[in-house]
Amino acid sequence: MSYDIEIGRSKRARRTYSLDDIALVPARRTRDPRDVSTDWQIDAFSFPAPVLGAPMDSVMSPASAIELGRLGGLGVLNLEGLWTRYEDPQPYLDEISLLPGDDMPRVTSRMQEIYAEPIKAELITERLAQIREAGVVVAGSLTPQRTQEFYRTVVNAGVDVFVIRGTTVSAEHVSQNQEPLDLKEFIYELDVPVIVGGAAGYTPALHLMRTGAAGVLVGFGGGATTTTRRALGIHAAMATTISDVAAARRDYLDESGGRYVHVIADGGLGVSGDMVKAMAMGADAVMIGAPLARATDAPGRGYHWGPEAHHHEFPRGARTQMSQVGSFETVLHGPSNHVDGTSNLVGALRRAMATTGYSTLKEFQRSEVVITNRL
User: Fold this and answer.
1) What are the structural domains of the chain?
2) Tens of pLDDT along 228-277?
3) How far apart are the C-alpha atoms of 251 and 7, rounded to whole Å?
């Protein structure tokens, strides 16, 4: 069956679906939500909640990474953010939250100035040590461009999970200006599990899996803070993309003789229903930013931004104001008094699994879904 449609006489395109285009279907059997397990394990590390905090300064500080770990998730610290540029980043976080929202060029310009401060290796060590001392799993993130420069510092600091995260990451990056990062060689030399991405389709994800990555981040151009779709015209519809990458995981499992690579949905997961549908489409876990930015104890103080917002050459993101709903604990586990899917995210996942009759996350990936929006 062909999924291509004609766009005029010279171009054919594949029809894809976003998470808004699909819905789950209740099954014949239902379960008590208390009998459902949301446990997730990657490498030697187990988590009661399949949630990674996105490495964004508005979401993850050392303190919030510790709190997320205490609540059963995995906080990933941005090792190129304010916490590794300034000994005391709080004045700059405060300033970003107070910049006038009606003057976006001014906001962007000032953020570019703030993030122009060099990254300091000793601060990377100090921040990761702070998380480790709290007794939770330690995870830090670098972009591919900075990985060669700082990865030894990160590993020596005792990181448990290393994340290489960019807007898009390929196993075959070509550059005439600098020596590209050889992911396969790099990952082979490390003694810690590596999560890498984003990947926006079957082939790039399969190539990343072949590098030895423990997990692949899935998504491109989504999220509350990015303007990538408007600025570059590039976007990946998440429902289709997750399904494609899940197919790559299945084929790589056969190809490698049983090596399982985790699929982690990253971007465009604004409410609990998005998280639920991402898991149903085949994700093992989700990396979220905006939902956690709504927490009253998030570093952004009601604002949310990513690295795209202060790119020194081509910013394609915005500082976005979020409605605060409660603490990290309220956002993840409730109790909730919101009816819009902005709090008790794990409770929503547990209830959706129970309603569709599945008791584990791997079983839940077999959920029946339907297309709800007609194109």
Assistant:
1) 4-371 (3.20.20.70)
2) 667 777 778 999 999 999 999 999 999 999 999 999 999 889 999 999 99
3) 31
